[in-house]
Amino acid sequence: MTLEVRDPEDGVLLGRVCTSTAEDVRRAVAHLHRHLQGDEWPLRSRRQALEKATQLLTEQADRFANIIASESSKTITEAEREVRRCIETFRLSAAASGELTGETLGFEDSMAGGSKIGWYSRKPVGIVAAITPFNDPLNLVAHKLGPALIGGNGVVLKPSARTPLTGLALVQLLLEAGVPSGRIAAIVSGPGVAEALVTDDQVDLISFTGGPQTAERIAAAAGAKKILSELGGNNATIVCADADAHQAAEAIVAGAFGVAGQNCLSVQRVYVHISLFEEVLEQVTRGTEALRTGPKLDRGTDVGPLISEAEARRVEEWVEEARAAGATVHVGGTRRNAYYEPTVLTDVPAECRVIRDEVFGPVVSITPFISVADAVHAANSSDYGLQAGVFTQSIDQALDIAEKLHVGAVVINETSDVRIDSMPFGGFKKSGVGREGVRYAVHEMTEPKSTIVNLRGSGARWQPMPGALPERTMP
C-alpha cells in the first residue's frame, strides 16, 4: 500500500510513500538488534558521521526547507529557520561525544570498599523507537536521532503520516553521512505499525512527541520500557503592572501565531495586570491585524494554513464554543479551508477548551488580573506545565513568580516561545516525562555501567611492591 502526501494548503499531491506493516517493523527491529550484537561502531566514527551530516545538511538547506514548506504548514521562512536549528542539533549531537564519559567509584570512601577499585562508563540502552509529530518534521526528528546515534544505539524512526517526506530524507542523509544501515531504520504509518513498534520486546526505549492520550496508550501497550514523552503545553504569559506594554505585546503576537499556533511553546493564555490590560489588548489586536495569512512559499506571508482542514474546523469549533459562552473576538475568528485567521479573545470562561486544553492553533486569550498571586494561580491551573513567560521590570518579582510557576522553564521578559537546542526541554504534569535537549537526551538514551575490580581476588593475587612491608594477616 502507499500513502499519498499532499500539501495542506491546496491538496496538491506531493508524492507517495510505501506504508509499512507490522512484519516490516519486526524485520527492522531484528535487523538493528543483530547489528548491535555483532558490529562495532566506535564513538569517533559516530561523531564523524554526525559531523558529516551537519555538513551535508548545510549544503542541502534549501532542498530540506522546500520539503518542509511543501508537506507541512510552515511558511518558507519558518522552514528555513527549522533547517538552521536542525544543523545546530546535529552539531550539538556530534559534540555530545564528550558526555559519554564516566567517573571513578568511591570505594576508598566506603567501609565496604576493601581492596576494590571501580569506575562507570555510559553505554547505549539498545534500540530506540523515535515517534515524531508533523509540526517540526525535521528538527524534532533530529532531536531523537542525533542523541540516539551518538550514544551508540540503533534507532527506528516513525515520522508523522502527515509529513513523512522530511523524516525519510533526513534518514537518507544520515546514511550518506556514514551512519551504518544496521543502526538506523525508518517505517511509515500503516495498519498495526505503531503497536508493533512499541510492543516489540527488542525495543528498549520509546521517545515520543505528541498528545497525552496517545502517550497513555503507548505506555499501556509498551510495558516495562523506558519512555520519554514530550506532550505539549497550554502556555501562559504574565504581564505585570510595571512591564513594558509594547515589548510584551510584540512578543505575544510573535509567540501566539508562529507556525499558525501549531507549536507546543505557543502562547495560549495571557494574564495582564488591569492597569495595562487595555493598552496591551489594543497593541496585540493591532499587531495581529497586521499579520498576513497566505501562501506558504510567499515570503510576505506571516501565517500559513493549519496541517489540515479538519484541524482548522476543530479550532473554529473551539472558538465558537467560547464565543457562545460570552467571549469577545477582537480580531480573527474566521476560517477559510485549512486557514484559520489569527484570533484574539477576551472574556473567555475558564471552562472553555481554548483556556482548558491545548488549542494548537492561532488563538490567544487575554485576561486581566489584579493581584500577582491570582495570575500565578491561573497560570498554574492548567493540566500542562511546559513553559511560561513573565514581563516585569523588577528582578525580585520576576524570580518570585518564576519560583512559583509549576513549569519546565520560565522566560523573563519574553513569552513561553523560547527554546535553544542545548537546553533541558520538557515540562511537568501532562507536558511529558523526561527531558530533551541534546546532552540531556544522550543521558536518557544511555545507562551507566560499572566495572569493579577486586585487587585481592583469587584470579589476581595482590603482591606487595619490592621492599614494601609484607601483607598483614588478620587473626
Fill in the keyword field for this structure.
475 residues, alpha/beta, seven-stranded mixed beta sheet, six-stranded mixed beta sheet, 38% helix, 21% strand
Concise structural overview:
This protein has helices at 22-38, 43-59, 61-71, 76-95, 139-150, 164-176, 193-199, 212-222, 245-257, 277-289, 309-324, 353-356, 372-380, 395-404, 438-444, and strands at 2-6, 13-18, 103-104, 116-124, 127-131, 154-158, 184-186, 205-209, 226-230, 235-239, 267-273, 328-331, 335-336, 339-340, 343-346, 363-369, 384-385, 387-391, 409-412, 428-429, 432-433, 446-454. With 475 residues, it is of the alpha/beta class.
Walk me through this protein's architecture.
This protein has 475 residues and is of the alpha/beta class. It contains 15 helices and 22 strands. The protein has helices at residues 22-38, 43-59, 61-71, 76-95, 139-150, 164-176, 193-199, 212-222, 245-257, 277-289, 309-324, 353-356, 372-380, 395-404, 438-444; strands spanning 2-6, 13-18, 103-104, 116-124, 127-131, 154-158, 184-186, 205-209, 226-230, 235-239, 267-273, 328-331, 335-336, 339-340, 343-346, 363-369, 384-385, 387-391, 409-412, 428-429, 432-433, 446-454. Helix 1 runs parallel beside helix 7 (193-199) and helix 5 crosses helix 15. The chain is globular, with a radius of gyration of 26 Å. The N and C termini lie far apart (78 Å).
